[in-house]
Prior knowledge:
Elements: E1 3-9, H1 16-25, E2 30-35, H2 42-51, E3 55-59, H3 66-79, E4 85-89, E5 93-97, H4 102-107, E6 113-118, E7 120-122, H5 133-136, E8 140-141, E9 155-159, E10 180-183, E11 187-191, H6 197-211, H7 223-233, H8 256-268, E12 272-273, H9 287-294
Parallel strand pairs: 1-2, 1-4, 2-3, 6-10, 7-11
Antiparallel strand pairs: 4-9, 5-11, 6-9, 8-12
Amino acid sequence: MRLVMTLLVRDEADIVRENLDFHFAQGIDFAIVMDNGSTDGTAEILEEYAARGLIRLIHRPGAFDPEPWVNELVGIAIREEGADWVLPNDADEFWLPRAGTLKELLATLPDEIGAVVAQRHNFLPAPEGPEPWWERMTRRARVSLNAHGRPLPPKIVHRAHPGLRIRRGNHRRMPPREGRVLRTDAVEVLHFQMRSYAQFERRVIQIGSALVGRDDLPGAGGPGAQAAVRAVEGGPAARGVRGGGAGVRCGRGHSPARRAARAALDAGTDSGQRPRPGRDPARRRGPLTSNLRATRGSRCAASRPRPVC
């Protein structure tokens, strides 16, 4: 069985190496990564993996357009890389089985299963310090919600077939759908969206910039997207922000995007819970894997993950 992961990234230097190393340890055989004009060192990190033959790297500049790009990567995984299963992933998401590896879990499934749905869990922002994000962010939300205030949608890994297409957000398949969908708690997706103030501010700006003038994109009118667009355009992205033109500073000398990012970070820090003790001991020796597994148990200090490449 060949398991191929796809990633669409931009300015993810603080997490993309950890994501790749972690999922290679979970049995990923190969990854196809598209970089959308990163300027923070992400592209250079990915070039290292490409030089080792672990990933196929595609550089794609221009306006962010996720749905067709993700489906392009899925098509490459199936037609050119011989994938039996395809994992369309995001850089801030980590697929963690309760036992074994992700590849071992998928290998046990009967042929009638065409997709596996796993629930996502938001991990809350933590005070910034010298420690890496994966040592600081050890609290998950009591109830994980999306930007609409609704339950956070799950993610899905797919058995490969020629007609496989993924809807925007990597949450569902488009017709034609082959095989039965298995919803299981045997694997969960840990979501580390807000790792630092600067990183989240940059993300708000990226989303808003991609959506400005893009009324054709499904979901572009959602509250999260609207806030990001207002932040870029200089409107009231968060409570107390005075509107203005693009680039206008407002309210205590902060830009609308900065105020939106800070409001989101501040709102998240008091809504979580400590992981429950004794759920599952760390199975693998890799420090990052051990630390993520320890989020089901007690707080764990760890050193920087050892690369598997």
